[in-house]
Amino acid sequence: MRIIDPYNINESVFRLLDKDWMLITAGVTGHFNTMTASWGGFGILWHQPVAFIFVRPPRFTFQFLEQYEWFTLSFFGPGYKDALNFCGSKSGKVVDKVASTGLIPENPERGNIFFKEARLVFEC
Q: 41 CB contacts (<8 Å, ≥6 apart)?
């Protein structure tokens, strides 16, 4: 993983969210969940880069977002739509999304889970 300044990202956030989708992941190794989303945003708040997401309380991922201070947003190339569809249509309460998709969870220094196959990850 290579850390880059958010000001140096030359991606369309509209394409990332609407067309590429993302996995929202919260938790730590051995206790995390992920879900697909195609909504949210990026911007500046009080001179700081921010990302914002919306997750309904009934979603399994919500409890992980409430429990852990950090979360990640992982964006993938076009070959991962099937995995993203799966993660967006199945609950982590019922199915092991990692085993079912073959995605490989990793965690950087802060311990926040992201996926090895992602081409772009935001730690939030």
A: 13, 17, 51, 52
Q: Give the type of residue at 57.
A: P
DSSP code for 90: S
Give the Cα separation of 117 and 96 in Å (integer): 17
Distance CA 105, CA 24 (A): 13
Residue type, 78: P
Name the residue with tokens 């998709």.
101
Low-confidence ranges of the chain (pLDDT < 70): 1
Question: Residue 2 is encoded by which pair of tokens?
Answer: 């290579």
Angle (nearest 5°) at CA 107 between 102 and 113: 65
| pLDDT for position 103 | 96
Give the per-residue pLDDT at 1: 65
Instruction: Show Cβ contacts of residue 44 under 8 Å, excluding neighbours closer than 6 positions.
Output: 50
Q: State the DSSP code for 79.
A: G
